[in-house]
Amino acid sequence: MGRDAMKTHDQLSAHQHEIANLDLRDLIERDDRAATCTFEHDGLLVDLSRHLVTADTFDLLRKWSRERDVFARRDAMFAGDPINTTECRSVMHVALRNQSDRSMRVDGQDVMPAVRAQLDRMRSFVSTIHDGTWLGWTDKKINAVVNIGIGGSDLGPMMATEALRPFHVRGIRSYFVSNVDPSHLHDVLEDLDPESTLFIIASKTFGTQETLANAKAARRWLVEALGSDQAVARHFVAVSTNASRVESFGIDLDKMFTFWDWVGGRYSMWSSIGLSIMVAIGPSAFDALLQGAFEMDEHFRTAPAEENIPLNLGLLDCWYRDFWGCASRVSLPYDQHLRHLPAYLQQLEMESNGKQVQLDGSPVGSGTAMVVWGAAGTNGQHSFHQMLHQGTTVVPADFFIARRPIGDIDDGRHAMLVANCLAQAEVLARGRTLAEVTNDMRAAEDGDEDIKRLAPHRVMPGQRPSTIFAYDQLTPQTLGRLIAIHEHRVFVQGAMWNIDSFDQWGVELGKKVANTLLPTITGEQSGTGDATSQRLIAFLRNGRSHSSS
Ligand code: F6P
Prior knowledge:
By secondary structure, the chain is α/β, with parallel strands linked by helices. Helix content is 48%, strand content 11%. The strands form 3 sheets. The chain has a 6-stranded mixed sheet, with helices on both faces. Strand 1 and strand 2 form a beta hairpin. Helix 1 packs antiparallel against helix 4 (55-67), helix 4 (55-67) packs across helix 14 (309-323) and helix 7 (155-163) packs parallel to helix 12. The termini are far apart. It binds 6-O-phosphono-beta-D-fructofuranose (F6P). 6-O-phosphono-beta-D-fructofuranose is lined by residues 150-153, 203-205, 208, 211, 265-266, 351, 504, 507.
């Protein structure tokens, strides 16, 4: 860290000590709160009023971000510079949703013609599925699409497909298989008719063990049912960057949709990895998804620091991680259709920023990615919210809530959903003091003995920060905006910590070790793995007690 950045860091530390003594209840009532802490972008409201910050906090955080050159790094990303330095790659998922006529260059080459060509291929293919000109091997119309992929080749498409359920094209059901646990594919196939099922094998590398094993099992299922290897051509398409592996798997290249090494797996739902999304919602809704993301790219690229939503969100994350010691953040969509959002954000943030060294290989010297977790509200209220309210750990929370649900399904329950969402944020921030609890109990005519015994259990500490993301309806455009905000928020965190947010070396060793253990597990070899693994393998192979070996 440079000297100036160090100074600002020290100032922020001192400022944190001052803020820690302020009551969030008072902060919330301050007149400047709406001006300094709420951000509106074309119907999307991001409310940061319930954070442990003052206007000075934002000033200091923005100063710190100037010293860390966050905007310069952002500009480098948009310019196609190889900012993924450990893999020498550009990071250009923003090109996938570029709706302007600006060129986007990687290695001096405008990638937009190739991006548009792939989108066109996807649109034509999806139209043939929808209008029934693409038929299965026995000439049946396709009515089920199974995306087989894992990580970024699953979580984004699955999250978005479920989020946009009200926009689904009728007559096609979408399924997602990721886990190599045979039960996953088995349970999905149980309900499907091979004659009308299409498989999308989605893998950037086309080398991922789980995906290939599931794809082979799906192919066996299909060929056994339809009685011919040739059926594969009508029931399998691939999405990948690796044409030769797709071909050796047995999928013709005219059934392959491609993308590029400058699209990270967890940033790839906008590419042909989003084929399953497009099949589910149709090409024009997919365009709206891209449009929403593009709007946020433009906002991130051009809005000044004071108004820049991803910048301020990312800075707040660093504020809590670096200065308050918060190790986790909870994502609480009060929107059933966004129930897979926490899992999606988990990969986005934790795979991107779960790093320990800076770009030059030296230690980061602070915490990095928070643990991101969560579940849809109101369900979480009847489960883990107890810990959020009264546990000993402060967990900043993100709430997501729509102004109105899609379609004609409301009978007053949406108002309950809104009330619960806002109530949770309010209670987290304000809490309930011992005096208030005591007064309430007196008013309820509880005896002194009971008050003494029970009041401490009812005290809520408050001072627990949260963000509200409020939007009109969860449309494709809104979803595009929300996801792009989070991609850029993660980018800002990474830039502040000076890490490479776009590699994932940490997952490689586990894959290698699994491959060395496999022959011992299948019995083809013996003795791989450490002593504990070997005892466990003996137990799992033979049912022998693992302590008796
Ligand atoms: O193992 C992690 C990872 O490499 C993710 O980054 C990626 O999204 C996922 O595996 C799947 O990779 P692929 O799309 O190449 O199958």
